[in-house]
Write a structure and sequence with these properties.
alpha+beta, Creatine Amidinohydrolase, Chain A, domain 1, Creatine Amidinohydrolase, 2 domains, 5-stranded mixed β-sheet, 36% helix, binds glycine, binds manganese (II) ion
C-alpha cells in the first residue's frame, strides 16, 4: 500500500494521520486545502434494489425483536484489528451482525430500540460511517477517509440496500448515553462500545442475547441453504484445482496446496472459512495442521480439509483424503474404505427427528468394529464403545453445525444442539476419521503416520437428508477415477 501523507513538522510525526479523525492536517497549505474541497462529481446512487437477503434479515430481526420486547439491543459489526502500525488484518464482520443485516461494514452497529410510548416492537437503526466530508478534509487527510479506503455507501444508499434506516455512527455514543431502560449488547467485537455500555448491561443478560442468536441460526432459511450450496460448489472446484497441481506441491511443499485453494476462495468467494488444513503424509494425523510447511510425497496421502467462504460469508467445510500419486496402497485403501463405511452410516442417520448424537454413534460403531476386526483393540465392540477405546484413533466428534461460522451455532445450549433433535433446514458436517500417530507403538508399524478423514456437508430435509458436497467423489475407486480424469491419465 502507499504511504500516508508525510507530516511536515516534528510534532506531527508523533501522530499518524490515521488518528486524526477530524479537522485539517497542519502543514497543508490553505490553497491546497481549499482546492481539495471542490471539483468532485456527485456520485450518489439512486434507485438501488435491496440485497438478496434483505427480506430474510428483516425476518430474523423481527424474531429477535419478539424475543426481547422492550429492550434495547446493540449488535456491532466489529472493528478493524491492527496488524502493525497503520496496517490491519483483513476485516471479517461479526457473524451475529451479518446474520441480522446482510451487511459487512467495519465499525457499524445495529441498534434495535423499543418503540416509544409502549408500542410493540423495535425501531431499527444501523449506525455506520457516512460518505467522507470533503469540506473539512476528512476525505483525504484522515486514514479512514474515502480517498484512502475507497468509496463508502452514503447513508441513503445503505438504507436502500439493507432495508434499515441508517445514521452516522458518530452519533451513537450520545444516543447510548441517553438511553434508558434495559440494554443488551453482543460482546467480543467492539470494546469501546462495550465500555460505553458497561454501566447499563450485565454479562448474564448479554450472554442470553448471544445464545439466542446462536440458536436462531440452527435452522437455515432458503437464502442460507443457497449460499451454503454455492460455498460447497466453489470448494469442489478448489479441490480439483489442487489435484491438478500436486506435482508442483511435490516440488515445493504443502504451501502450494494452501495457496492454490486460497486462490479459488478469493476469486469465487470472500476468503477461506477457516485455515485450510493441507496435511500430507503423517501431518494428516494432526487434526488442525495449518502450518502447511511440509513435504508432499508420492505414495503418501494428502488430507485436505478446506472450505470456501462466499461473499455473503457462508462457509463450506469439506475434507478429502487423496493418494498423492493417484492410487491408494492396499493398506491406505483398507483404512479409507473403513472411514467411508463409517461416513455412510453417519450420513444415513441424519434425518428429521433423529437425535444430533445419532450420526456420531453410528459412525463410531463402524470404526470400532473395524478396529476390533483388524486386531488393534480387543473386542467385543460393545466393550470398546462403552469404554470409548476407539477414541485413541477416532479423536474427534463426527460433525457440527455449519453456516456463517464453520463451527456454527457454537453458543447454543446443550439441550438445543448436542442433546437436541435434527430438524429440516439444519446443515451439518459428517466427518469421521481414523488417525494413527507416527509414534503410536500400539499399532503395527505400517499403520503409523496414516490419517484419513472424509467430510461432507449435509442438509436435513423433510424426509431425510441431501449431501451438498456430492460434486466431490467419496468412494476410494471414484476418487482415483476423478483424479485420473483431472490429470488426463
Ligand atoms: N475444518 C474443521 C472441522 O472440520 O471441523
Ligand atoms: Mn473440516
Ligand atoms: Mn468440520
Amino acid at each position: 500500500m502507499t504511504d500516508e501523507l508525510t507530516p511536515e513538522t516534528p510534532d506531527e510525526e508523533e501522530q499518524p494521520i490515521k488518528q486524526r479523525k477530524n479537522g485539517l492536517y497542519p502543514g497543508v497549505s490553505d490553497e491546497l486545502a481549499e482546492n481539495m474541497k471542490s471539483g468532485w462529481a456527485d456520485t450518489e446512487l439512486h434507485d438501488l434494489a435491496p440485497i438478496a437477503q434483505a427480506g430474510h434479515a428483516a425476518d430474523r430481526r423481527a424474531a429477535l425483536s419478539a424475543r426481547f420486547p422492550g429492550e434495547r439491543l446493540v449488535i456491532p459489526a466489529g472493528l478493524l484489528k491492527t496488524r502493525a502500525n497503520d496496517t490491519e488484518y483483513a476485516f471479517r464482520a461479526a457473524t451475529e451482525y451479518v446474520y441480522l443485516t446482510g451487511d459487512q461494514t467495519d465499525g457499524s452497529v445495529l441498534v434495535l430500540e423499543p418503540r416509544a410510548d409502549g408500542a410493540e416492537g423495535h425501531e431499527e437503526t444501523l449506525y455506520r460511517l457516512p460518505r467522507s466530508n470533503r469540506e473539512n478534509g476528512e476525505f483525504w487527510l484522515n486514514g479512514m477517509g474515502e480517498l484512502w479506503v475507497g468509496r463508502r455507501h452514503s447513508l441513503d444508499e445503505a438504507a436502500a440496500l439493507l432495508g434499515i434506516a441508517c445514521k452516522d455512527v458518530r452519533e451513537l455514543p450520545e444516543q447510548l448515553r441517553e438511553a434508558t431502560g434495559p440494554v443488551r449488547v453482543v460482546r467480543g467485537y467492539d470494546a469501546p462500545l462495550e465500555q460505553a455500555l458497561h454501566d447499563k448491561v450485565t454479562a448474564e443478560r448479554d450472554e442470553e442475547l448471544r445464545v439466542y442468536l446462536s440458536e436462531a441460526r440452527l435452522v437455515k432459511d432458503a437464502f442460507e441453504i443457497g449460499e451454503l450450496q454455492k460455498a460447497v460448489d466453489a470448494t469442489a472446484r478448489g479441490f480439483a484445482d489442487v489435484v491438478k497441481v500436486l506435482d508442483k506441491a511435490e516440488a515445493t511443499s504443502e504451501r502450494y496446496i494452501e495457496g492454490t485453494f486460497f486462490l479459488r476462495a478469493r476469486v469465487e468467494g470472500n476468503d477461506v472459512g477457516y485455515g485450510s488444513i493441507c496435511a500430507a503424509g503423517p501431518h494428516a494425523t494432526t487434526l488442525h495442521w495449518v502450518r502447511n510447511d511440509g513435504a508432499v510425497r508420492s505414495g503418501e496421502l494428502l488430507l485436505l480439509d478446506a472450505g470456501v467462504e462466499t461473499i455473503t460469508l457462508y462457509t463450506a467445510d469439506v475434507t478429502r483424503t487423496l493418494p498423492i500419486n493417484g492410487r491408494y496402497t492396499d493398506l491406505q485403501r483398507k483404512i479409507y474404505d473403513a472411514v467411508y463405511e463409517a461416513q455412510e452410516a453417519g450420513i444415513a442417520a441424519v434425518k428429521p427427528g433423529a437425535s444430533f448424537r445419532d450420526f456420531h454413534d453410528a459412525a463410531q460403531r463402524v470404526l470400532a468394529e473395524k478396529l476390533v476386526e483388524w486386531g488393534l483393540v480387543e473386542g467385543p465392540v460393545e466393550r470398546v464403545l462403552e469404554l470409548g477405546l476407539q477414541r485413541r484413533w477416532t479423536l474427534h466428534g463426527t460433525g457440527h453445525m455449519l453456516g456463517l461460522d464453520v463451527h456454527d451455532c457454537a453458543a447454543a445450549r446443550t439441550e438445543s444442539y448436542v442433546n437436541g433433535t435434527l430438524e429440516p433446514g439444519m446443515v451439518l458436517t459428517v466427518e469421521p476419521g481414523l488417525y494413527f500417530q507416527a509414534d503410536d507403538l500400539t499399532v503395527p508399524e505400517e499403520y503409523r503416520g496414516i490419517g484419513i478423514r472424509i467430510e461432507d456437508d449435509i442438509l436435513v430435509t423433510e424426509d431425510g437428508n441431501r449431501n451438498l458436497s456430492t460434486a466431490l467423489p467419496r468412494r476410494s475407486d471414484e476418487v482415483e477415477a476423478w483424479m485420473a480424469d483431472l490429470l488426463g491419465k
